[in-house]
Write a structure and sequence with these properties.
eight-stranded mixed sheet, 44% helix, globular
């Protein structure tokens, strides 16, 4: 394996490759692929390392881009297109075969992958065979549970467990994930805060001055069963004097279409559909509170974005009881408690102000690029850390 000492002796920084099949759109600034929190964070990290003189690459699906093309200092190597190949055979060819070829072309010293899937094991296996370091980062609580409820097939579970077992370092986002993974997989893991770009101090102050709608609540995410947006609509019906913004893409499933149809029937709800990255900040600026109705998550990127704008969160999901303990929102069990929390905060401006300031402070202390990325740099370089693992 290429050690950090050997690389330094060669007189260069380690080459880093991010394996993120769906992240081309996030990296290039387009709308292609599934641009979720993982894709945004991975592209952000890649650009951060590239800006600091590292040779950085990313492996993505083929979306008609030029192989090896450079975006903001990051070289993009492509595998096959997502729909290429014959069902039943395409897992091996062209998906796995083109992944191995792309990993070879990237020729990195360390490979980073986020999110549990077959790819976790495939990249880990290639790295072991080629003496390269492999870093894995879990994106959701379910990826830390021994039963792996989010992985539907035996093949996915076998390959993910292999990758997790043989990764040189495993990163999680919360203490709960750390405990769960240690118990279920007997694996040492490191808790690191994820980076998130946010408004500057001057932009933040301007946002506070422009936030003149005192009763506006934001929900942002994919319209899917796991995130339970129907509870957001229940909340809107329970608070007819409050404005509710539902933001996020909806697929063609019966569930999603039913939610959208219902949202359009509620007078105080506005469904905005999918929003581009350039427009998302406007929703955070206008809202007074953000709402999360999920039962389970990892550590939503939307939480970090909301807190960066001083936006408290009313949520049925509370990572490590952070919302409750840090006073950066209201942790609720159901719609009734969310309704009570919203009305209480709207009726107590000083309490909202205290939570807003605490939200911004928490973000600045933990999730800015300046505070979070140096910790990832130490891990990817194989340097010792002082964190509990």
């Amino acid at each position: 394996m290429k050690t950090n000492a050997a690389i330094q002796k060669a007189g260069r920084k380690p080459r880093i490759c991010f394996v993120a099949h769906a992240a081309y759109g996030a990296l290039a600034g387009g709308k292609s692929g599934h641009i979720g929190g993982v894709e945004r964070q991975t592209s952000l990290m890649a650009k951060w390392f590239a800006a600091r003189g590292y040779a950085v690459s990313m492996i993505t699906w083929d979306e008609d881009q030029e192989d090896g093309a450079e975006i903001d200092g990051v070289r993009v190597f492509k595998v096959c297109s997502q729909d290429a190949g014959i069902p039943g055979v395409r897992f091996f060819w062209p998906r796995w075969s083109s992944l191995n070829a792309a990993l070879k072309r990237a020729d990195a010293d360390v490979y980073y992958h986020n999110c549990a899937e077959c790819v976790t094991g495939q990249v880990s296996l290639w790295c072991r065979r080629n003496c390269r370091r492999f870093i894995f980062s879990a994106a959701h609580d379910a990826q830390c549970e021994a039963a792996l409820p989010g992985l539907r097939t035996r093949r996915e579970r076998v390959l993910y467990r292999y990758g997790l077992k043989h990764a040189d370092r495993v990163i999680v986002q919360t203490g709960r994930q750390q405990e769960t993974m240690c118990e279920g997989f007997r694996r040492d893991v490191l808790v690191l805060p994820m980076p998130c770009p946010g408004p500057s101090d001057s932009e933040y102050i301007e946002c506070l001055q422009q936030r003149n709608d005192p009763r506006r609540v934001l929900w942002i995410g994919r319209v899917c069963k796991q995130k339970r947006p129907e509870q957001f609509l229940d909340l809107a019906e329970a608070c007819p004097d409050v404005s509710f913004d539902l933001v996020g893409p909806a697929d063609r499933s019966e569930y999603a279409q039913r939610v959208i149809a219902r949202a359009k029937m509620i007078s105080n709800v506005t469904y905005h559909g999918a929003a581009s990255r350039d427009c998302v900040s406007e929703f955070y600026k206008k809202a007074k509170l953000m709402c999360c109705t999920s039962r389970s998550e990892g550590f939503p990127n939307t939480f970090l974005e909301a807190w960066s704008y001083g936006l408290p969160i009313v949520s049925t999901f509370d990572p490590d009881n952070l919302i409750r303990e840090r006073g950066i929102g209201v942790s609720a069990k159901d719609v009734a408690e969310m309704t009570s929390g919203i009305r209480e905060l709207f009726g107590a401006p000083q309490r909202w102000q205290t939570m807003s300031e605490a939200s911004r402070r928490y973000y600045l202390e933990n999730h800015t690029l300046e505070s979070a990325m140096p910790q990832f740099e130490r891990v990817l370089l194989g340097m010792p850390d002082d964190a509990k693992s």
